[in-house]
Amino acid sequence: MACTCSHEPAPQKPNSKFRTALWIALVINLAMFFVELIGGAYAHSSALWADALDFFGDTVNYAVSLAVLGASLYWRATVALLKGLTMALFGFVVIAKTIYAYIQGIPPEAITMGAIGILALLANVVAAVILYAFRDGDSNMQSVWLCSRNDAIGNIAVILAAVGVFGTGSLLPDIFVAVIMASLGLTGGYQVVQKALQERRDTQAF
Question: What is the mean pLDDT of the chain?
């Protein structure tokens, strides 16, 4: 008689509340991607462009997370691993954009930058509050929470940078914010990658 038991933990039952939270976060991030893409181009702000790229990356992350709900821990961890690497890659992209902006030397338009920063902060606070309950879940859930948390922190920095640009007429506050956002991407990506690798090892140990 064939053995039907499995040595890998059973796939997690899809969490309907988590699924709903992901859909809300996905819609918010997709809308803000277009807002910051257009606003960043108008204001010549590298920080807004970087944040728009982050919104787009988060939209993709939420879509992927929705796709793997109910999959085995190994596959959820594998997807989280890819998302963690994407978060880290975002950090390097922002660094490259920061260097380019510094070479160009064009200060951003502070009023537009600040207004969009406030709108983005409100959007991300809503998403972060919705996803807060799932921050201690598996690596897939953790990566989703970290994305929203990092975005909210980044938006506060964008607002402060707008104030700095308005007061000094310099592009340096915008550059400084871009560096902060790059650091968030790198550290957040590292955390997700480490947890995802551990979960993959745990499933293979069974």
Answer: 77
Give the whole-angstrom CA distance, residue 11 versus residue 5.
13
Render 97-143 in DSSP notation, one character per residue.
HHHHHHHH-PPP-HHHHHHHHHHHHHHHHHHHHHHGGGTTS-HHHHH
Q: How far apart are CA 71 and CA 69, in angstroms?
A: 6
Give the integer Cα–Cα distance in Å for 116 and 158: 9
pLDDT higher at 134 or 28? 28
Which pLDDT belongs to residue 5? 26
Length of the chain: 206
Q: Which uninterrupted H or E stretch holds 2?
A: none
Whether the per-residue pLDDT at 66 is higher than 70: the answer is: yes
Tokens (6 digits) for 183: 């650091």
User: DSSP for 166-179?
Assistant: HHH--SHHHHHHHH
